Amino acid sequence: MLRTFLMLAAFFGFTGVALGAFAAHGLKARLSAEYLTVFQTGVHYQQIHALALIGVALLSAHIGGRLVEVAGWLFTAGILLFSGSLYLLTVTGTPMLGMITPIGGVAFLGGWLLLFLVAFKLA
Question: ∠ at Cα 52 (20, 24), nearest 5°?
Fold first, then answer.
């Protein structure tokens, strides 16, 4: 899982920087200030969880286990659902896409909870 999660981290880190730059330069004139903030929230959470995936990759190499792996997949799902829904919401102007965002948030929370359990089991 080391390779998989490192590749996902690099992909989401790269695309997070690219999307942030796109929003700052390409969407600034096209989106309202409110939607630009929503888009940047998606970028922010994507970047944080790209870094979390690096941690998951390293943990998978040193500790391993199902909890670490599932945490990584939850972070991945969270990025796709949370950040992805915010990107689509702002670009398309379809407010119903906002109903997907909390599902991604729950995936993020689940990933962090599993990492807590991994740490708890180490003691």
Answer: 5
* Other beta carbons within 10 Å of 37: 12
pTM given for the model: 0.95
**Residue 52 structure tokens:** 């979390």
Tokens 């997070």 appear where? 16
Q: Which residue has the tokens 């994507």?
A: 46
Neighbours of 63 (CB within 10 A): 13
Report d(CA 3, CA 9) in Å as an integer.
10
Amino acid identity for residue 50 in this structure? A
54: which 2 tokens?
Answer: 């690096």
Nearest residue to 87 (alpha-carbon basis) of 45, 50, 42, 37: 42
Give per-residue pLDDT as tens, 51-99: 999 999 999 999 989 999 999 999 999 999 999 999 999 999 999 999 9
Angle between helices 84-92 and 33-62 in degrees, nearest 10:
160
∠ at Cα 121 (120, 123), nearest 5°? 75
